[in-house]
Write the structure tokens for this entry.
Amino acid sequence: VQLVESGGGMVEAGGSMRLSCAASGSTSEINAMAWYRREPGNHRVLVAVITSHGESTDYADSVKGRFTISMGNAKNTMYLQMNSLKPEDTAVYYCNADFGRGSSRTISWGQGTRVTVSS
């Protein structure tokens, strides 16, 4: 599975932005997808996760009520709608896919898209 993120950029605090992650390849084998972010000087942390058919989601406490993760109708695109953005949301956001079965199960990462929230 190959992943390509888009939609990053700069926004003022309180604004909104939507990130997209387009998956290609063996997308029928995707078990779940997620968004992670790497804040300046920190390691990569989980932001939100969604099962392949969108039936279950979970969020980091820091983004609950502000961010929404969703799957597109074609099931090969994932979104992260980010509202009420704060300067501390500034990070490089990465798309992640958990795919495969048994010993073939593995994880794929996108290249990342930078989000900058100005105060």
